[in-house]
Amino acid sequence: AQSVTQPDIHITVSEGASLELRCNYSYGATPYLFWYVQSPGQGLQLLLKYFSGDTLVQGIKGFEAEFKRSQSSFNLRKPSVHWSDAAEYFCAVGARGGYQKVTFGTGTKLQVIP
Amino acid sequence: DADVTQTPRNRITKTGKRIMLECSQTKGHDRMYWYRQDPGLGLRLIYYSFDVKDINKGEISDGYSVSRQAQAKFSLSLESAIPNQTALYFCATSGRDEAFFGQGTRLTVV
What we know:
The complex is a heterodimer of chains A (114) and B (110). By secondary structure, chain A is an all-beta fold. Helix content of chain A is 0%, strand content 51%. In chain A, strand 5 and strand 6 form a beta hairpin. In chain B, a hairpin with a 4-residue loop joins strand 9 and strand 10. The radius of gyration of chain B is 13 Å and the shape is globular. In chain B, 35% of the residues are buried.
């Protein structure tokens, strides 16, 4: 069965510092991978997705993620965090063809301090 | 207007009451979903629908039912609410690759 692990429940970074959120997955074939962000009181918004091709994926809001098959990881990065990035971040893995096949991680809550 | 609109945004109900959460979308997608979010558990799929006549159970459908009234409308019902159904509920719609989520309904069952 497919699964996603986000080992960090909560992360605190200073504004302007770099950020890396970890995501490890288990999937029997080539995975489709996603990162979503949930701002307070909002629904989830897609940051980026990986299906194939270049393993470094650029997303919105200055985020990027790198797919590493050998490590079963899809970590999210941002070189300089802004206070508005404070939110909860969800990694997800699944098959193409509908979200009924997508499994979400438990989320990492990001706090940004001045 | 939001792509996916959920009503109500917040609701407190009593144990044993029937409650309906409503969702409408303007993306024109056929696929719609209902999720439940609990702290530390992420999102779990309750029901999904590929079109008006195609409704399927998800991971945690017990205690819930759904109705797809039109391509754009998908409602979730709790026939007899219980306290452990207290959660944040999300509706979503998707094309092939990206899902669009509503802002959520925070439901409290007392």
